[in-house]
Design brief:
Layout (H helix, E strand, L loop, with lengths): L6 E9 L4 E11 L5 E11 L1 H14 L8 E5 L2 H8 L2 H7 L8 H11 L4 E5 L7 H16 L6 H11 L4
Parallel strand pairs: 1-4, 4-5
Antiparallel strand pairs: 1-2, 2-3
């Protein structure tokens, strides 16, 4: 299989205030570099971890040919460790009882099912070209385009408020 048939995904998330306005950035390209696309999205109120995970989910949703191998690169230890160290499967077995962001982890499991992917950690703010691009996309989306609602985060806040006794 040639490198043009491998998809490389780079992601980053940002939340200003954490929680606060947030955004994520994605760079997707073929390994041979012949095709490259960039995406970003901004949210009114969210957290950094939610943006990190949402970036991966949104990138996986954009893959049209699920049979192609995929490499995901993220600077989020939260996302990478949850997947690589198997935390996500423990959380699933416990019905996500103690997991943060269970709505997104459930979505990740659904979206990633059947995709041949590997995930790798890259050190953020370390001059990694694609990570730097993703960071700029995420921060710009959080600052200038926070128009979307993170309904999952809003539900978390609502549930906290409803626990009066």
């Amino acid at each position: 299989m040639s490198d043009s048939n491998k998809i490389l995904i780079y992601t980053d998330g940002s939340a200003l205030g954490n929680p606060g306005p947030g955004g994520y950035g994605i760079v997707m390209k073929t390994a041979d570099g012949k095709l490259e696309k960039k995406f970003s999205k901004g949210f009114k109120l969210t957290t950094n971890n939610r943006m990190e995970l949402m970036a991966v989910i949104d990138a996986l949703k954009k893959i049209k040919d699920k049979s192609l191998p995929v490499e995901i690169y993220s600077d989020s230890k939260y996302v990478v460790d949850a997947i690589r160290q198997g935390w996500i499967h423990k959380w699933k077995a416990n019905r996500f009882a103690k997991a943060k962001n269970p709505d997104l982890w459930r979505e990740f499991l659904k979206i990633s099912d059947g995709i041949n992917y590997q995930i790798f950690w890259v050190k953020g703010h370390n001059n990694h070209p694609e990570n730097e691009i993703c960071d700029k996309l995420a921060v710009t989306a959080a600052k200038k385009e926070p128009v979307h609602e993170d309904t999952g985060y809003e539900q978390i806040l609502k549930n906290k408020d409803n626990k009066l006794f």
